[in-house]
């Protein structure tokens, strides 16, 4: 009777305790490498999105494609005449990031804030946990557990 409910709770607790990030998304940072901007993709928890697929478009034309390194890095090999690009990143299991980027020319680099220039960061997204999604996700899980427990009690 209670055996199924205890096993269900035990499995839930084991899964709950072993996951590092429960609700996360993707964020990006673009740093200036050796004359090449480097795109770095990370999950909300800070771990790198290694081997994520990257596609770069200019006016709906694919100009570069590839995968990030194990550290989540990808070089942006964009011709200098291209001003605006669209970057799509797919890190698997529904993790997708789409953003637009305008490459900075050397004479515009002085406009970057001092904090960013100090770390060679050109652009960075704000990686925030969407707490509403976390609460709704946990609510769904807890309601499913409650329904399972209710079913066990009705079968008695």
Q: What average pLDDT do the residues reach?
A: 77
CATH 4th-level superfamily of the largest domain: Immunoglobulins
The portion of residues forming beta strands comes to 25-35%
The total number of structural domains is 2
Organism: Desulfonauticus submarinus
Keywords: Membrane, Transmembrane, Transmembrane helix
Transmembrane segments: 131-150
Protein name: Nickel transport protein
Could you explain the architecture of this structure?
The chain has 156 residues and is of the alpha+beta class. It has two domains: 1-23 and 129-156; 25-128, Immunoglobulin-like. It is built from three helices and eight strands, in the order H-E-E-E-E-E-E-E-H-E-H. A four-stranded antiparallel sheet has the order 5-2-1-8. A four-stranded antiparallel sheet has the order 4-3-6-7, with no helix packed on it. Helix 1 (2-18) packs antiparallel against helix 3 (131-155). The termini are close together. This is Nickel transport protein. It comes from Desulfonauticus submarinus. Keywords: Membrane, Transmembrane, Transmembrane helix. The chain crosses the membrane at residues 131-150.
Secondary structure layout plus pairing:
Blueprint: H1 2-18, E1 26-32, E2 37-43, E3 53-58, E4 61-67, E5 73-75, E6 85-90, E7 96-101, H2 114-118, E8 121-124, H3 131-155
Antiparallel strand pairs: 1-2, 1-8, 2-5, 3-4, 3-6, 6-7
What is the compact description of this entry?
The protein has 156 residues and is of the alpha+beta class. Helices cover 30% and strands 29% of the residues.
């Amino acid at each position: 009777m209670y055996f199924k409910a205890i096993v269900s709770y035990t499995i839930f607790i084991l899964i709950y305790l072993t996951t590092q990030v429960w609700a996360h998304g993707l964020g990006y940072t673009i740093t200036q490498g050796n004359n090449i901007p480097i795109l770095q993709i990370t999950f909300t928890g800070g771990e790198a999105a290694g081997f994520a697929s990257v596609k770069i478009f200019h006016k709906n034309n694919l100009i570069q494609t590839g995968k990030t390194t194990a550290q989540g890095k990808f070089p942006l090999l964009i011709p200098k005449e291209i001003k605006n690009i669209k970057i799509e990143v797919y890190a698997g299991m529904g993790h997708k990031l789409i953003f637009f980027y305008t490459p900075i020319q050397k004479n515009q680099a002085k406009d970057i804030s001092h904090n960013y220039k100090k770390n060679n960061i050109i652009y960075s997204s704000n990686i925030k946990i969407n707490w509403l999604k976390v609460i709704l996700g946990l609510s769904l899980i807890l309601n499913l557990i409650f329904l399972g427990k209710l079913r066990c009690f009705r079968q008695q």
